[in-house]
Write a structure and sequence with these properties.
alpha/beta, 7-stranded mixed β-sheet, 3-stranded antiparallel β-sheet
């Protein structure tokens, strides 16, 4: 199923009007009924999302409506984890290391040059994240939805080298929350359609739908060899 480029604009309006009316639960798991019937051994590609409170603790603003839309439209299960500290992030990253069905890792945090910031004065650099992944995320896709985390190509390439991820994507500029959320929707939906194994050409095709928007956010992508494309 194709995701129309106009969905970026639709999602921005959807989130603005219909974001969670109360603070999201710390952990939410959305499976598909058919998968539950198959039993625990069934290994469908899933999305893992880690998100921090954006403005304050118990802030209702969240990317969860995005995940629900992908769950409905592309039939992809997800797990959503609310993080308020570096310790939360470490615990969650380590707990999912063996859960290989989670092929797309979506990290929605505050950020700055080479760092994410899940809590006030609680910053994590890319090397530390690589330590926590401990080589167990090799072959997966990681997307940073955060300001400027990937603005240093050398740090991003080193992260790819250490983790062995299939693909690394994110933003090199400060980003508008709604615009980046719309791009995240389109990008993650395409990754889901590719069963968590998107090709360079598929990501480039996403870019080509709205090149000015992607460029304004400083969207960047690196392949499994650390090459930016």
């Amino acid at each position: 199923m194709g995701i129309p480029p106009s969905l970026v604009v639709v999602f921005a309006n959807t989130v603005a009007a219909g974001r969670c009316s109360e603070a999201p639960n710390n952990t939410v798991v959305r499976e598909l009924a058919a998968d539950n019937e198959r039993g625990e051994g069934y290994d469908r590609m899933k999305i893992l999302c880690l998100e921090n409170p954006w403005r304050r603790k118990n802030d209702p603003m969240s990317v969860r409506p995005l995940l629900d839309m992908i769950h409905t439209m592309v039939k992809v299960p997800y797990s959503y984890e609310r993080c308020e500290s570096a310790n939360d992030v470490q615990d969650i990253i380590e707990s999912y290391r063996r859960r290989t069905s989670y092929q797309v890792i979506y990290l929605a945090f505050h950020g700055y040059d080479g760092f994410v910031s899940p809590g006030r004065d609680d910053d994590i650099d890319l090397d530390t994240l690589a330590d926590w992944m401990d080589g167990r995320y090799a072959g997966r896709v990681v997307h940073f939805s955060s300001c400027r985390t990937l603005n240093k190509a050398s740090a991003a390439q080193h992260f790819v080298e250490r983790t062995g991820v299939r693909m690394l994507t994110g933003y090199a500029h400060n980003v508008d929350w709604l615009l980046s959320a719309g791009v995240d929707l389109f990008l993650l939906a395409k990754m889901a359609e590719a069963h968590g194994k998107p090709t360079k050409s598929q990501i480039n095709a996403v870019w080509n739908h709205s090149p000015e928007l992607f460029a304004s956010l400083g969207f960047v992508a690196f392949d499994r060899n650390g090459q930016q494309f």
